Amino acid sequence: MTRRRRKKTPPAETRELTAEAVGARGDAIAPGPVYVPGLLPGETARVEVRGDRGRVVERLSDSPDRVEPFCPIHGRCGGCALQYWRAEVYRDWKRDRVVAALARAGLAAEVGPLLDARGAGRRRLTLHAERRGGAFVFGYAERASDRLVDAADCPVAAEPIRNAFPDLRRLADALAPAKKGRIDIAVAATEGGLDVAVKGVREITLDHRLVAAELAQSGGWARITISGEPVAERAKPFVRCGPAEIVPPPGGFLQATAAGEAALADVALAAVDGAKRVIDLYAGSGAFALRLAEHAPVLAVEGDAEALAALRAAADHTQGIKPVETMKRDLALEPLASTELEGADLVVLDPPRSGAREQAERLADSAVPRIVSVSCNPATFARDAAILVEGGYSMGEVTPVDQFAWTGHVECAAVFERAG
């Protein structure tokens, strides 16, 4: 049997480089190109270079747009990488990411101002814990590494999560393996209290249950789930969505901030006027569908059974909304055909980062008069938008939304009208 050869790591060399721009992931781009975290355009540094990646050894000049990061573990933690950039310039760069993606797809759409959707802070995040060399570590993954950096707080998190950090650490310490192994702690701040879902625990012991029950009670947490099993629940972990209350599945998807969700939903709601039937594709737990159902009957299509069940339960317990139908379907494998879209006055499309090329093609072949496209990836948003425009749709103003502040992530949404 022939063994596969390991790819050799290129030898390192130290160069003096000047950053020319900031790329989509937040790394500076120097001639080569070489991608260097931690630099701003115009700054010069001595950089250790391996292949097309660089590490700053010494910064030789500072940009006038450089500011002091507000997080004590910035530079080691893998999140919020751009805290050292002056806010106004950072915001222009993030909006320009959307403009550039549309231009690469051949689209000359209007792009509105970047909406600051930090709101009350991130209402969901995932922490990690392990024992390394006998020491307990609780926090986030380091940048471009599998190692963890210990975190005592997270300044961008919603206040209920920040306040719970000591107790979350205690829970993680009780559940983390004694030797090898890492656990993941997904935390969501809901209106019923914190919803904590822990993954990676192989065997749930009595001690685990007792610690979870104590922390849920003392901290006022709504629910704790360990490896898929609810072990403590003192209240329903619900989020309000228009007139409805959704109880998402443990560790289930929520938009990062409530303000971000509301900003994206507003784009869809602005397009629902006069609609008699709406189809919500990639509906999740109903962030758009349940708001739209105040105005028109909705068919919500989603491939995740737990998310769809949460949507169904919320719809069933909400008075004063139009009928909501649900359909379980993996739209990436089986997009709705143009014939299945007949009769819809509005379609909302909110796929994952990979986009929805095949579904966009079916929509382009349909007679749906109005489409709202929402995306967390400007590149796939632009690709799918170009398909719709090629199919005869006109594209309205694009709304960029920033709920992942100080990162390269940006959401965008736009309304498409069937020409004629």
UniProtKB/TrEMBL annotation:
Keywords, alphabetical: 4Fe-4S, Iron, Iron-sulfur, Metal-binding, Methyltransferase, S-adenosyl-L-methionine, Transferase
SUPFAM superfamilies the UniProt entry points to: S-adenosyl-L-methionine-dependent methyltransferases
InterPro entries in UniProt: NA-bd_OB-fold, SAM-dependent_MTases_sf, U5_MeTrfase_fam
Coiled coil: none
GO molecular function (one): 4 iron, 4 sulfur cluster binding
Residues engaged in binding S-adenosyl-L-methionine: 255, 282, 302, 350
Active site (catalytic residues): 376 (nucleophile)
A single BP term in Gene Ontology: rRNA base methylation
Domain of life per record: Bacteria
PANTHER family named in the record: 23S RRNA (URACIL(1939)-C(5))-METHYLTRANSFERASE RLMD (PTHR11061:SF49), RNA M5U METHYLTRANSFERASE (PTHR11061)
Family designation: Belongs to the class I-like SAM-binding methyltransferase superfamily. RNA M5U methyltransferase family.
Name of the protein in question: Class I SAM-dependent RNA methyltransferase
